[in-house]
Amino acid sequence: MVQNLIENNRNWAREKTRVDPDFFSRLVRQQNPEYLWIGCSDSRVPANEIVNLDPGELFVHRNVANLAPPQDANYLSVLQYAVHVLKIKHVLVVGHYGCGGVRASIESTDHGLIDHWLSPIRDVAHEHRHELDACSSQDARVDRLCELNVISQVRNVATNPIILNAWREGQPLAIHGWVYSIANGLVTDMNISVRNLAERERLFGI
Ligand code: CO
């Protein structure tokens, strides 16, 4: 019931103020997040909760299958604001195992409009088809593609002109790729952090 949500909200705000009387007045003055989270819309992957950060500490962009498509105005606007105005220090691209979007991308059934959105993942799957074909099950294939998709999106972010200009101007900015497990609540670092052009060259050859 929606009315329950309003009651939840009242209780939450009361509890926040009880623990920290200045909590909301501080947030009104400014937000000062050091992190941009690019994650999946999946309701089981709540950005702030997973990394135990309060409101004001994490700038969040979520879409189906945590994509960073170079032509997507929504993502680009978020990235530009995060880098230019908020001066965030880290971009976290966070996928999750068992992602329904990733799974749908390699199913042969027609899902309508979402198939268009998911087409970059199909490209990743095609590029890595031999490795994926060798997976022991469809679940294993989906999970590996979740990882490969995160790596591909980190590459997208690391080649974005907004990021390049920030690096050229000496702004400290690192891009990281994680995959979250809904089964145990833990993130796995894909070890593809990119902090500068030399690291990008070493990791992606570009
Ligand atoms: Co998902």
- Estimate the helix proportion, in percent: 40-55%
The CATH topology of the largest domain turns out to be Beta-carbonic Anhydrase, Chain A
Beta fraction = 5-15%
Give the distinct bound molecules: cobalt (II) ion
Mean pLDDT: 97
The CATH architecture category of the largest domain equals: 3-Layer(aba) Sandwich
Please tally the β strands and state the result: 5
Radius of gyration: 19 Å
Describe this structure in words.
The chain is of the alpha/beta class. It has 2 domains: 1-30, no CATH class; 31-204, Beta-carbonic Anhydrase, Chain A, CATH 3.40.1050.10. The chain has 11 helices and 5 strands, in the order H-H-E-H-E-H-E-H-H-H-H-H-H-E-E-H. The chain has helices at 2-19, 23-29, 47-50, 73-85, 100-105, 113-117, 119-127, 129-133, 138-158, 161-168, 197-204, and strands spanning 35-40, 58-63, 90-96, 174-180, 187-189. It has a 5-stranded mixed β-sheet with strand order 2-1-3-4-5. Strand 1, helix 3 and strand 2 (58-63) form a beta-alpha-beta unit. It binds cobalt (II) ion. Cobalt (II) ion is lined by residues 40, 42, 65, 96, 99-101. Residues 40, 42, 65, 96, 99-101 line the site of cobalt (II) ion. Belongs to the beta-class carbonic anhydrase family. Its cofactor is Zn(2+). Reversible hydration of carbon dioxide. It catalyses: hydrogencarbonate + H(+) = CO2 + H2O.
Can you summarize this structure?
The protein has a five-stranded mixed β-sheet with strand order 2-1-3-4-5. The termini are far apart. It folds into two domains: 1-30, no CATH class; 31-204, Carbonic anhydrase (Beta-carbonic Anhydrase, Chain A, 3-Layer(aba) Sandwich), CATH 3.40.1050.
